Amino acid sequence: MKSVDEFRKQLNYDLVGVPPIRSFEGLPPGEHPLSIFPDGKSVVVLGQRIRRGDFRAMEEGSLWQNPGRWLTDFDNVVRLIEDQGYECVPYAPMDAANMPKRPVRDGLCAPNGVRLSIEHAAVAAGLGEIGYHGMFMTRQFGIRQRLGLLVTDMEIEPTAMSKDGVICDACMECAKLCPLKSISMTESDSFEINGKQMRLGAINANACRSCPNGVCGDSKYFAGAEELHYEIVNNQIKGETRSKFARGGLPNRLAAACGRACIAHYEATHKTGYKMPFRIHEPWGFRPDEERGF
Ligand code: SF4
Ligand code: SF4
């Protein structure tokens, strides 16, 4: 079995984690990473810091630029793994046309039914946690990273869970500064992944879907996906028993008012090395139901 430190040193990523396969036990087949490579032995989660400047234009309201939340280019790591004699299947949430709706053989998941939660795997790998707003956070970068996942038949030692305590300090800035009041300050669910306990605020997913404050639709399975029309209770779409992590179905909110509130709070409470603070002006915010005045 390859040591995770040795594996990490070979890669040029800010975050490298290997969740234990047992941390996915109990997930529905479509959310289990081995559904994309049933003979895989290890799941690898990779992360790259997103440059702070990628949020600047949205923070100023000067230009609609949205940082993507998923890594999509795995060429180097896949070649590195293949050069050592193993195979590797990278995963990206996708909307491929004409994917079969039924499994190709018994015991497999239907190709159009695969919806892995990369954030779930990242927490299970000890890389970070899900914050109160439902987005993945790390101690190093707050919410500013994009994530990717791959499955390989190379056996890699799982990473240990961090014992450093919580990252989200429940400041509630994300809820207070949501112009649509979509994140409840009083209703929350507790959520556990691989022994890590987290507290997630109840979210009105429909409001996020129509939020004009920096939300980005990055896949049919995310913004605009049908499940967003439903209510999310206890991390599940009400009346639906398949999904274990419904917040993965929310649109990309990294640069939305809630995400930027979290960045501003993270920067106010952590050393980041930037000379200029992230938040220079009062945060702006629109509501879809307000009068436009023009
Ligand atoms: S803004 Fe505060 S409460 Fe919200 S996720 Fe970030 S740290 Fe947690
Ligand atoms: S996406 Fe918009 S509506 Fe949803 S929590 Fe963030 S700021 Fe509020």
Rounded mean pLDDT is: 87
| Alpha carbon gap, first and last residue | 64 Å
- Biggest sheet descriptor: 4 strands, antiparallel
Morphology call = globular
Strand content: 15-25%
CA-atom Rg in angstroms: 19 Å
In helices, the fraction of residues equals 10-25%
Task: List all distinct small molecules, including ions and cofactors, that are bound in this structure.
Answer: iron/sulfur cluster
Topology:
Blueprint: H1 4-9, E1 15-17, E2 42-49, H2 53-60, H3 75-83, E3 88-91, H4 118-124, E4 129-130, E5 136-137, E6 145-152, H5 173-176, E7 183-193, E8 196-203, H6 205-209, E9 232-233, E10 236-237, H7 257-269
Antiparallel strand pairs: 1-2, 2-6, 3-6, 4-5, 7-8, 9-10
Provide keyphrases for this structure.
294 residues; alpha+beta; four-stranded antiparallel beta sheet; two-stranded antiparallel sheet; 7 helices; 10 strands; binds iron/sulfur cluster
Structure description:
The protein contains 7 helices and 10 strands. A 4-stranded antiparallel sheet has the order 1-2-6-3. Strands 4-5 form a two-stranded antiparallel ribbon. The N and C termini lie far apart (64 Å). The longest helix is centred in the last third of the chain and has 13 residues, at 257-269. The chain has one domain (7-269). 18% of the residues lie in helices and 17% in strands. The protein binds iron/sulfur cluster (SF4) (2 copies). One iron/sulfur cluster binds at residues 178, 180, 182-183, 207-208, 211, 213, 215, 253, 256-258.
